[in-house]
């Protein structure tokens, strides 16, 4: 009797398992995956995808795959089955459906070095809360007054050091500018002070590890970065303790003080938040400024137009500092910024994964698969932009329609700051940094490449020689 009952239960379970397997096989069989190649076992196509290439192109890998498979294709990247999208519509759809159909999903090594509470890797409500904290500190009123003034102060500080230097590394100078600005903005650190320079040294080591292969062995850049991360976090923690001991009334003048006073975050959360904002606010903006310097020296007509705009602004004001009204007059400058971000592609692709089975344009994206929206492929798409590999700021100038409203037909295709719920919280600050830097640069200097150099995507954007430029003071 016992054996019969046992066998009955066994056969019932076996029947259910068979039905489940057949159902899943049927489900997979009817799925229409995009065409593509999964590459080598284990490695996939990651090595070929990450092979360096000129930053104002999409690289050989993307060119060949788009030519062979179309703008949406399957691959195996970063250790996972992946749907790669060079399609503007799908990329916008992915960004808008964040948290519903798709979710941020960076490689584990990124979270290991930036921290599990970093805004880059957080998802859902926790990311929303961290983003709100950042937005509360980056209000329009604060941008128009305090931050605009600080951006200009740090711009003049860097440019004043160029006065007697005929040759500089524009990339290093841009990094110095943005680091000093963010260090003061976040923790009130003063440029040139020993503690600021010490933090900068550790941060440089940290950054080399962020953009390196995640090999956690002694002597590797990744291992050194983890050690620098620990040193940086101890530095931030010491600053937190100093704030708590002093309990100053104006302790919310920088981001660290504001977070301590208003957020209710844990110590670990604050440490990762501060580190991730230092990373986001420094690295991307410095690369964008270096790219603008590079593109402008090769486009004399754009530089002449810029100089005319900024001379007019300088002549019209009686103040010694730029005002928000002055900033809003920098219309062609905004075209230069948009074109720099489009052609230079500081952020080339994003990491997402599908939360559900998704169908798009007849293709299926299986639940759990990695999804890679390639932003640079949209920005350099000849069907969206005329002569996309040419630096042409005029393409962003607004045109009037019949009704008289100003429209910009190409602006909807610009995804330099992401989109949807994860739209970059510091996008306006980044544009202010670029505009103010360009304002004083064009009024004070003429420049040219001191030796050949060009931006390369590793996939992070970098100038192999540091963008050496020869200066002539105006």
Q: First CA to last CA: what distance?
A: 101 Å
Average pLDDT reading: 88
Main sheet: strands, sense, barrel: 5 strands, mixed
Low-confidence stretches are 1-6, 21-28, 399-407
Going across the biggest sheet, name each strand in turn.
2-3-9-6-4
Which keywords apply here?
474 residues, alpha+beta, 11% strand, globular
Quick synopsis:
The protein has helices at 2-30, 46-49, 59-69, 88-96, 108-114, 124-137, 140-160, 170-187, 194-210, 221-246, 255-262, 267-297, 300-316, 324-328, 331-344, 375-379, 427-444; strands at residues 53-54, 72-77, 80-85, 102-104, 167-169, 352-354, 358-360, 363-365, 370-373, 399-400, 406-407, 445-449, 456-457, 461-462, 468-473. The chain is of the alpha+beta class. The radius of gyration is 25 Å and the shape is globular.
Could you explain how this protein is built, in words?
With 474 residues, the protein is of the alpha+beta class. It contains 17 helices and 15 strands. The strands form 5 sheets. A 5-stranded mixed sheet has the order 2-3-9-6-4. Strands 1-13-14 form a 3-stranded antiparallel sheet, with no helix packed on it. A hairpin with a 2-residue loop joins strand 7 and strand 8. Helix 9 (194-210) runs antiparallel to helix 10 (221-246), helix 10 crosses helix 12 and helix 12 (267-297) packs across helix 15 (331-344). It is globular. The N and C termini lie far apart (101 Å). Mean pLDDT is 88; it is low at 1-6, 21-28 and 399-407.
């Amino acid at each position: 009797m016992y054996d019969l009952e046992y066998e009955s239960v066994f056969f019932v379970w076996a029947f259910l398992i068979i039905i489940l397997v057949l159902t899943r096989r049927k489900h997979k069989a009817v799925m229409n995956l995009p065409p593509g190649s999964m590459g080598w076992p284990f490695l996939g196509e990651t090595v070929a995808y990450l092979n360096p290439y000129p930053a104002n192109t999409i690289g050989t890998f993307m060119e060949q795959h788009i030519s062979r498979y179309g703008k949406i294709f399957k691959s195996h990247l970063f250790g996972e089955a992946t749907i790669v999208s060079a399609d503007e519509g799908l990329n916008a759809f992915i960004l808008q459906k964040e948290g519903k159909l798709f979710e941020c999903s960076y490689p584990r090594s990124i979270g290991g070095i930036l921290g599990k509470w970093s805004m880059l890797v957080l998802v859902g409500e926790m990311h929303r809360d961290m983003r709100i904290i950042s937005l509360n500190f980056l209000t329009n009123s604060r941008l128009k007054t305090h931050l605009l003034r600080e951006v200009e102060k740090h711009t003049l500080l860097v440019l004043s050091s160029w006065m007697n230097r005929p040759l500089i590394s524009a990339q290093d100078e841009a990094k110095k500018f943005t680091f000093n600005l963010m260090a003061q903005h976040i923790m009130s650190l003063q440029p040139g002070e020993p503690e600021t320079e010490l933090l900068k040294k550790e941060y440089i080591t940290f950054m080399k590890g962020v953009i390196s292969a995640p090999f956690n062995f002694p002597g590797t850049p990744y291992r050194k970065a983890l050690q620098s991360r620990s040193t940086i976090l101890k530095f931030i923690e010491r600053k937190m303790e100093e704030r708590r001991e002093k309990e100053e009334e104006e302790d919310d003048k920088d981001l660290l003080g504001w977070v301590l006073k208003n957020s209710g975050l844990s110590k670990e959360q604050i440490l990762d938040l501060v580190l991730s904002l230092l990373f986001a606010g420094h690295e991307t903006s410095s690369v964008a400024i270096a790219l603008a310097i590079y593109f402008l020296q090769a486009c004399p007509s754009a530089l002449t137009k810029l100089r005319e705009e900024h001379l007019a602004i300088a002549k019209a004001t009686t103040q010694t500092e730029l005002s928000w009204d002055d900033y809003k007059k920098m219309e062609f400058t905004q075209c230069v910024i948009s074109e720099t971000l489009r052609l230079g592609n500081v952020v080339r692709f994003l990491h997402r994964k599908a939360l559900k089975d998704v169908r798009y344009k007849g293709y299926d994206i299986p639940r759990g698969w990695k999804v890679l929206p390639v932003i640079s492929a949209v920005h350099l798409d000849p069907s969206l932009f005329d002569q996309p590999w040419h630096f042409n700021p005029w393409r962003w100038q607004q045109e009037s329609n019949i009704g008289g409203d100003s429209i910009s037909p190409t602006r909807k295709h610009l995804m330099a700051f992401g989109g949807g719920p994860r739209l970059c919280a510091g996008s306006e600050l980044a544009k202010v940094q670029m505009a103010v830097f360009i304002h004083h640069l064009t009024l004070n200097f003429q420049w040219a490449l001191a030796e050949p150099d060009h931006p390369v995507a590793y996939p992070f954007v970098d100038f192999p020689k540091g963008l050496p430029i020869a200066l002539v003071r105006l």
